[in-house]
What does this fold into?
Amino acid sequence: MSSTFRGALRPLTTILVAAVSMTASGCAVGPDYQPPKATMPAAWVEPAPKSVSESDADIAHWWTKFHDPVLDSLVKQAIASNLDLKLAESRIRQARAARNAAAAGLGPGVSANSSFTRSQSSPGTSAAARNYGVTDGILSSQYQAGFDASWELDIFGGVRRNVEAATADLQASIESRRDVLVTLAAETAVDYIDLRASQQQIAIARKNLLAQQRTAALTQQLFKTGFSSDLDVANANALTATTAAQIPVLETSARQYIYSLSLLIGCEPGALMTELNPISGIPTAPLSVPVGIPADLLRQRPDIRMAEAQIHAATARIGVATADLFPKFTLSGSAGFMNNDISSWMDWVNRFWSIGPSVNWQIFDTGKTRASIEQQKALTEQSVITYRQTVLTALQEVENALIASTKEYEHRKALADAVAANRKAVELSTRLYSDGQTDFLNVLQAQRSLYTSEDALAQSNRNVSTNLVALYKAVGGGWGL
It folds into this structure.
């Protein structure tokens, strides 16, 4: 390497060392991120479920506590194939690529170039040219190849703030996927429970319809023998018709729940018909959810964690906008070979190079930069408000699930007692009516009350399970997969 070239590199080396030192040690403009402070209550308003053992405390796979292999299989299929989850995963890859692109701005960029130019100069109009008969211009060729390098020095931290914002965006996308997991597991469980509840209601309706048809046949026989009136026959037929009318509605609901579950696992509507058509019981689980204390939601709920990451990203972008108020320093250089003869193009003597720093400072922009800073501050404020709203919503969802779960247990117990009493009333009224000791209205009322209470008990069993699912979802269960 020639002494001239080495001499040119010395000031560049000095500039590079100084630039790296300033970039590494310099503080970035704009506010540093401070985690938001959320005021959380010390305890829940509603009484929490009974204490749980360590083996029960895992809420990542809470659906397994229902001990239903079909439900376990559906959740597993949904996690593997759900399209919303795949979309969330794709957004993570997008955010990671955006973060890598932002980080690339911290280093220099180098590009290679090569060119060939063929040109003809003007022949000129001098007397000498005319005397010698020069009428054509001179043809020449030029071959050039080399490298260009450019490095914007992040002295004021604008690029570092952009990397910080992109990193927070990546974290927000990760939390968004986790939130999709929470919702997906809950929706799958709720649809499955609703399906089984509808099937139970269909079975109850058919059983009551069969009993009512037997009563109607008995009424018809008594009418023929003169021991019953045509009004009793009409009432009996009306009750059977009313009960029969409920079955198609319930069958429609059951079929639609199967279609909904098929969509959740990313399949066509009829994919689960064979598996889910057989009637099965409503899955149940003990009310032993480890809800912890309200402050635990800040780390357990992915939507809260996502909202916090969005505050971080918005805060960092204030620094990105603020950096535009300051000058931008760039080191640039180029090196290569240039000659008009291709045979000696790459000879060392044909080398060229240039090195030098530059500065660009937008001194006057009619307030555009400051307006951008104010815009980012407003977006940060909105992120903080969204975070607070998310926290409050989470607290409300847990409280709602706690009171609903507790009271539905009481509701179900009362309904179970009602079903037992109504079954006894149907048995007694039917026997007394057959013996001619009571009128048909008592039988009619007893059968109607039995069907209503059994149907209500099935719905309560469903509500007990769906309220438990809601509680697991409210505390952020199902994302640690």
